[in-house]
Write a structure and sequence with these properties.
Blueprint: E1 5-7, E2 25-29, E3 37-43, H1 57-65, E4 69-74, H2 84-98, H3 100-103, E5 105-115, H4 117-128, H5 132-135, E6 152-156, H6 168-175, H7 181-186, E7 200-205, H8 214-226, E8 230-235, H9 263-275
Parallel strand pairs: 3-4, 3-5, 5-6, 6-7, 7-8
Antiparallel strand pairs: 1-2, 2-4
Helix pairs in contact: 2-4
Length: about 280
């Protein structure tokens, strides 16, 4: 496996420079392969305030086991604001495609996956990849010119709306507390879905009290109305933040759940069908 840290931005390009010296980066989990393989770009959750390791490397390794290259995006979080996370995701997608030949990535089969606030980021790129705030993300700040468009979305208990079913912490971290209504509407992604949004896999739990399941239902309804293929799984139990719902991603709050843990196998099967690929 090729495991490396790739900086997203050249010196002076990153628009969120602060005193702590943080710069976003991409972590690679690239399989040794003679043939090109599909890839998944993973955005861990954390309410746009941090990025949890429970939704990072363990998930990448599961996709590796299924034959996919994987990449984990350590994107900008508070006190950095929109559009910096979106620019990071856009740039990361460009890098994966720019280096596709080197990494043996099928450049037309790159999905973006996100958990919780990372799900919002994945959905944001999937719906707004062609908007100006996501376009200055190519090499040396050049326009992305479609290189940043994901070929599929995988949304795991995602934050979607800034409306009635909002997760306040995520939206406040993304925009700043007290953001104007117009700014909140602009990141309420059920209103951003179009026929250009990629095919989407979504899963959530009915018991999620942090990010209500209505976030996923709103996005699924928008996909349906736009004629975009999607698959939606709503599990009857489970707290927010289950990740893989396996022992390696459990903690004092999130216990393993064999039923919910089936999501990744279903997702891998779906993604293989979307990409027309089998290991």
């Amino acid at each position: 496996m090729k495991h490396e840290i790739v900086k997203l931005w050249d010196k002076g390009e990153y628009g969120g420079a602060m005193d702590d010296g943080f710069e976003p980066w991409l972590e690679t989990y690239v399989l040794e392969s003679r043939a090109e393989r599909p890839a998944v770009l993973i955005c861990p959750g954390g309410g746009y305030g941090y990025r949890t390791p429970r939704e990072s490397e363990p998930v990448a390794l599961q996709f590796n086991a299924a034959g996919f290259h994987a990449f984990v995006l350590q994107y900008s979080v508070a006190p950095r604001r929109h559009p910096l996370p979106l620019r990071d995701a856009s740039r990361a997608m460009c890098i994966v495609r720019e280096r596709a030949a080197e990494w043996k990535v099928r450049a037309d089969s790159v999905a973006i996956l996100g958990f919780s606030a990372g799900g919002h980021l994945a959905a944001h790129l999937g719906t707004c990849w062609d908007k100006p705030e996501a376009q200055s993300a190519g090499n040396s700040g050049a326009p992305a010119a479609g290189l940043n468009r994901p070929d599929a979305l995988i949304l795991c208990y995602p934050v979607i709306t800034a409306g009635d079913y909002v997760h306040p912490g995520s939206i406040d971290n993304l925009l700043g507390a007290g953001a104007r209504e117009a700014a909140r509407r602009a990141v309420s992604l059920e209103s951003a879905v179009s026929s250009r949004t990629p095919p989407t896999f979504i899963w959530h739990t009915c018991q999620d009290q942090a990010v209500p399941v209505e976030n996923s239902l709103l996005f699924a309804e928008a996909l349906r109305n736009a004629g975009v293929p999607f698959e939606l799984h709503v599990y009857h139990r489970g707290l927010h933040g289950l990740s893989l719902a396996t022992p390696e991603t459990s903690d004092d709050l999130h216990r393993p759940d064999a039923h919910v843990a089936g999501w990744i196998g279903i997702c891998v099967e779906w993604l293989g069908e979307v990409f027309g690929w089998r290991e």
